[in-house]
Amino acid sequence: MSEVPKKQMAQVIEQKGGPCVYKEIDVPTPGPDEVLVNIKYSGVCHTDLHAMNGDWPLPVKMPLVGGHEGAGVVVARGELVDDIEIGDLAGIKWLNGSCLSCDFCMQSDESLCPKALLSGYTVDGTFQQYAIGKAAHVARIPKGTDLAAIAPVLCAGITVYKGIKEAGVRPGQTIAIVGAGGGLGSLALQYCKAMGIHAIGVDGGEEKEKLCMSMGATAFVDFTKSKNIVKDVQAKTNEGLGPHAVILLAVSEKPFQQAAEYVRPRGTVVCIGMPAGAYLKAPVFDTVVRMVRFQGSYVGNRQDTKEALDFFSRGLIKAPYKIVGLTELNDVYDKMKQGAIAGRYVVDTSK
């Protein structure tokens, strides 16, 4: 720990609703089963905005250092850690740690662990220069990796990859990605393309249409121009039956209701986005006779993480991102509130 400074710069949420305050804080010391990662870059996720606003029905730590897409270098480790070395590249994800011994952890559903630690929500996250992560859960990043480029994959990539797996869609079938022009959606389109799945991008505006088509979408539906979103999505599929699955990344409630109408019979609606206070609603009769399945999908486990990062390492996915300084985080949140972000913002913790 001799080369690690005692102080660092961070963006700290001091009270519910924010804003973030850029200030000097102590550098944490890793526990026996933890590593300390010198965060070089961290993606900014819509969940980070929820954490600042405290609008989810889950207690949030205050004061809080947000962020959960941090990529950097291991600079210290606890005495029980022997499978990751000082100098290795590592990523700190939403799932910072779990007990590893409950029924869920034993069955590779670590995200459902009742003692799960959540980066940038229940424990301090990655909008700081040095962050703590449980060694068992930090992502192993190959040496030579572009840390800015891989940062968004650590949440957005892993999350949508897991959702596609949960959907059970096979190569040659079709998925509608709602919110396809955002950080998660742009990666979901690329995973679909790499897996041989047709993807319909659903979002609003010409900029997002251009982005979606460049990311591998086979079709696009602009909800701001559509007079009947249900018919328009179905019209983009073979025989007009609708997509085999819908991946919902939307940050408002209405798309969750629409998806139940246009998904194909025996199709699956996968809910990933979590609009505050939103509910799922669908006609019982129609759901039964069309045999529609609703599926929640949370973040991926350690194996999902390994697989999702492998797609990146092989050059099959690339997150569209823009780098800004950590000092500009509040400006990123303002753009997020306006729905003015195409792709992902990544903060450089040195600026």
Give structural notes.
One of its GO terms (cellular component) is cytoplasm. Pfam families: ADH_N, ADH_zinc_N. This is alcohol dehydrogenase. Residues 17-347 form the Enoyl reductase (ER) domain. Its cofactor is Zn(2+). By secondary structure, the protein is an alpha/beta fold. It folds into 2 domains: 7-141 and 320-348, Alpha-Beta Complex (Quinone Oxidoreductase, Chain A, domain 1); 158-296, NAD(P)-binding Rossmann-like Domain (Rossmann fold, 3-Layer(aba) Sandwich), CATH 3.40.50. It is built from 11 helices and 18 strands. It has helices at 46-53, 103-106, 147-150, 156-167, 183-194, 206-214, 229-235, 254-262, 284-289, 302-313, 329-337; strands at residues 7-13, 20-26, 34-43, 64-65, 70-77, 89-92, 95-97, 117-118, 130-134, 139-141, 174-178, 198-203, 219-222, 245-248, 268-271, 293-296, 321-325, 344-348. The strands form 4 sheets. Strands 3, 5, 6, 9, 10, 17 and 18 form a 7-stranded mixed β-sheet that branches. Strands 13-12-11-14-15-16 form a 6-stranded parallel β-sheet, with helices on both faces. The protein is globular and about 65 Å long. The two termini are 23 Å apart. The model has no long low-confidence stretch (mean pLDDT 91).
